[in-house]
Specification:
The chain is mainly alpha-helical and 144 residues long. Helices cover 53% and strands 0% of the residues. Helix 5 packs across helix 8.
Length: 144
């Protein structure tokens, strides 16, 4: 329900429903992303062919489409998203898909520079995200 509440005000279509968000089909996600682009967000991220859902039918094309959005959102919000595009295309891990949709909303509402993030990604810049470093384990002390 959180995804519906925060994302629906940003797009005219498609209508976000719990049923669709429980196991979001690729076409539904494609429609959400293209509507965000029509609203002026993440412009230039995709080619005209990628924005035409009829031309994004192969698994690799779908994964590539989602990976671009994941990367640009990670650049915008500065954190690693746990979503894996292959799992999304397979209809798995909807909780991570919903988290990524919420992160898209965060990038827009918090007025992150999505154009700069798109530019960075297109120029070969990988997402620079904060990661929590694991504390180094100290070497065990040998008994005398």
């Amino acid at each position: 329900q959180a995804t519906v509440d925060i994302l629906q005000p940003l797009i005219k279509a498609p209508k976000l429903t719990q049923k669709l968000l429980t196991k979001p089909p690729f076409r539904f996600l494609h429609d959400i992303i293209t509507n965000l682009i029509k609203a002026g967000h993440f412009e230039g991220l995709y080619s005209a062919d990628e924005l035409d859902s009829a031309k994004v039918t192969e698994r690799d094309a779908k994964v590539g489409f989602l990976q671009k959005m994941i990367d640009v959102v990670q650049i915008c919000v500065g954190t690693t998203l746990q979503v894996r595009p292959l799992k999304v295309v397979s209809g798995l891990e909807p909780e991570f898909t919903n988290q990524s949709l919420q992160s898209m909303e965060k990038a827009i509402v918090e007025k992150h520079d999505t154009a700069a993030a798109v530019n960075q990604l297109q120029n070969g810049g990988a997402p620079k995200v904060e990661t929590k470093a694991e504390p180094k384990a100290e070497a065990p002390v040998k008994a005398p």
